[in-house]
Every structure is written in C-alpha cells, then in structure tokens.
Amino acid sequence: MFADKLFSLSDEDLIQQYYHTRNRRAFREIFRRYKEPLFRYCAQMDLARCTLLMENFWLSLLSEPPLLERQQLKNWLYIRLNRVLKSACSDVASESGPQETTLHDAFEQSDMLKALQQLPRRQRNIFLLYNQCGLSLATVADIERISLAVCRQELADGGKSLEFNLHGSARKPWVSSVTLAQQAAEAEALAQEQAREQAQTAKPRFTWGTRWAAKGLKPSSSETSKPSVEIAQA
C-alpha cells in the first residue's frame, strides 16, 4: 500500500518526503522515473564518461537532496546535471568501460545520434533539452545563461544543421537536356513576345489636335461651323 501511495505522488512531493524523512523508497521512485531519460541525455552530451557521471550524480542526490522552493524537480535535475557535465571536462577522467563501448556501438548504428554529435556543444545541449527532455525554452536559456532570443536562434540553427547532417543539402530534381532546351526556347519566345508588346506601346499616338497641327490647319470650333450650316440651308 505504501508503495502504491508513493507511485501516485508528484515528483515534488517525493523529493520533499525524502528530504525530511530520508525514506529510501521515495528516492527509488524518483530514480525509477528519471534514470533512463537522464542517462540518455548525459550519454548524448558526454558518451565517454556518462556512466561515471551518472553514478556520481545519483550518489550526490542521495546524500544531499534539494529543498525545492516553487521549482519543478525535473528542471532542477537537468540544471544540476548540466553543472556536472560542464565541470566534468576537468574534474572527471575519461574511462571507457564495457557499457561505454556498447553505447558507442549503438551511436555508430544510429544516423540520428551521429548527426547530433556533429552539432556544436551548445546547440546540441539546447536541442536535446528542449526537444528530448521537454524543458521550456526559457529554462534552457537559463541553463545556458543566454537570452531567450539567442536561445531560440540557436535552436533553429541546430535544427537546420541536424537536417543537413542527416540528409545533406537540398538537391534539385534531375532535368534532361531535351527539357532544358525546350525550357530555353519557351523563355526566348516569351522574351520576344514581351519585346514586341513594348515596341507597340512605345509608338506615339496622335490626337486630333496634333493632326491638325501637322497639316498647318486649325480645326474649326463648333461656334464657327454652326453658322455656315445655316447659310447653306438657306
């Protein structure tokens, strides 16, 4: 019954209970929920040392659980693991064991994982935290200590680079020489048609006034023409 109750508790209630009581069952439930996603993320960020890093991470959480203050445990775990990863470059020596070898083989067989490894470290971290780990973009920006706008741009650039690493540059469809010649002829015919239309519209259009001026005569007004008609009728 007690195990069923722990299963129904939220992450925050579990860590709070473990913080106050050091109940190992509460810790094991947290470990069960986050063991795989945290390890998967850590492996994609530091494959050579992920096993040792995660062992140290869980031992640290076991001995010093956090007292959360209006913070989600999920966010806290990834923030804490990021600090471990950033300090691991100098603090933890690289040791490749059997598990790392198995993981390396899995990475070699996955085009997606290999493409992710080609991203710059910050772009890879942002892409994983947002798309795989489910953190908000604002939380990811806080982890990387960059503005939200920069984080959004890095995420977009990482997605484009990942797409390129997976599929290469966009290729134009193959076109035969016959089709190319036909397209060139159609373009030439269209250009000639447009040139003829422009030539026609460019010719001057004479008005009645200019015609009279060209003949050296002036058109009679309606007032002068009217009396002549009446005389003729008389």
Can you tell me about this structure?
With 234 residues, the protein is mainly alpha-helical. 76% of the residues lie in helices and 0% in strands. The chain contains 13 helices and no strands. The protein has helices at 2-8, 11-21, 24-45, 50-63, 73-91, 98-109, 111-117, 121-132, 137-144, 148-167, 177-202, 208-215, 222-233. Helix 2 crosses helix 3, helix 3 (24-45) crosses helix 5 (73-91) and helix 8 packs antiparallel against helix 9. The chain is elongated, with a radius of gyration of 39 Å. The model is unreliable at 206-214, 221-225 and 228-234 (pLDDT under 50).
Topology:
Elements: H1 2-8, H2 11-21, H3 24-45, H4 50-63, H5 73-91, H6 98-109, H7 111-117, H8 121-132, H9 137-144, H10 148-167, H11 177-202, H12 208-215, H13 222-233
Helix pairs in contact: 2-3, 3-4, 3-5, 7-10, 8-9, 8-10, 9-10
Instruction: Briefly note the structural class of the backbone.
Output: mainly alpha
Average pLDDT for all residues: 81
Number of strands: 0
Give the helix level as a range of percent: over 70%
Query: Which regions are unreliable across 5 or more consecutive residues at pLDDT < 50?
Result: 206-214, 221-225, 228-234
Order of helices and strands: HHHHHHHHHHHHH
Strand content: under 5%
So how many helices? 13
Shape: elongated
